[in-house]
Amino acid sequence: MNQLRSLWVILTTAFLLLGIARVYFLVDVPDSPQLASGQGAVKCREYESPSRIDVSKPLNMAVWNIYKQQLEGWDTELRSLATDNTIILLQEAQTKPQMLSYVEESGWHSNQAYAFAINGEIAGVMTLSEAVPVKVCAYTKVEPYLRLPKSALYSAFSLSNGEILSVINLHSINFTYGVTEYSEQLDALVEAVEPLKGPLIIAGDLNTWSNERLSVVRDKLSLIGLKEANFQPDERLRVFSHPLDHVFYRGVALQHAKSIDTPASDHARLEASFVFDEAKEKGSD
């Protein structure tokens, strides 16, 4: 059953990618202006009143490809994730009315990268957080031949010790021949985050369904000091025996990570708990 589901994921994604030329945006959810971000461009938004994350407490984060909320029970699963996590990275989120209502009623701060729209409903990576970020950027690029999308959503959060926590929500391109374009996407990401100081977390659906893709991700992210989280239990969606979803981190210590399968999506939900180095804390005013 899992192999059939994996094959369906690949075929469906290939169909979408071959048939749609995507334009990217950065949007607040709900009710905010859309910021266009064209080919090869970056669009950012800064917030005047960011809130701070307390480094004396663990940082709990969830990562989940929500499959455009197509399967029953996604809202129940999302509410369950919200119980224990203060940052949630969603891939394939879609701003259907039920999702918009959930975000508004739950009080999450939310940003979304505009990948494409179906009947006026935006689809793309979405980052939910209890804290208001300092800055959010949508990184975008369109492939030159098949017009395939490449995107990531970067969020900078202020910490109580004076540092900045950088969180990147990534949904890597899926359908390519070879790893040239796939590698280029990671190269652009590495170049963007290499100058960043402070803790850094890169997570999402990286579509690492081959040895070559997995090696590209591990090699390039290890060069900038990121470690890969191991999950216990590990029920991540696998294609050709390779897990697609990952969490990479530096500047924080991983306490534990787990991945639980759910019928509410074709991907399992990931949860990770991190602690900060309190020795660096400067205190708060």
From TrEMBL:
One of its GO terms (molecular function) is catalytic activity. Pfam families: Exo_endo_phos. InterPro entries: Endo/exonu/phosph_ase_sf (IPR036691), Endo/exonuclease/phosphatase (IPR005135). Transmembrane segments: none annotated. Residues 63-267 form the Endonuclease/exonuclease/phosphatase domain. It comes from the Bacteria. This is Endonuclease/exonuclease/phosphatase domain-containing protein. It comes from Grimontia celer. The lineage of its organism: Bacteria, Pseudomonadati, Pseudomonadota, Gammaproteobacteria, Vibrionales.
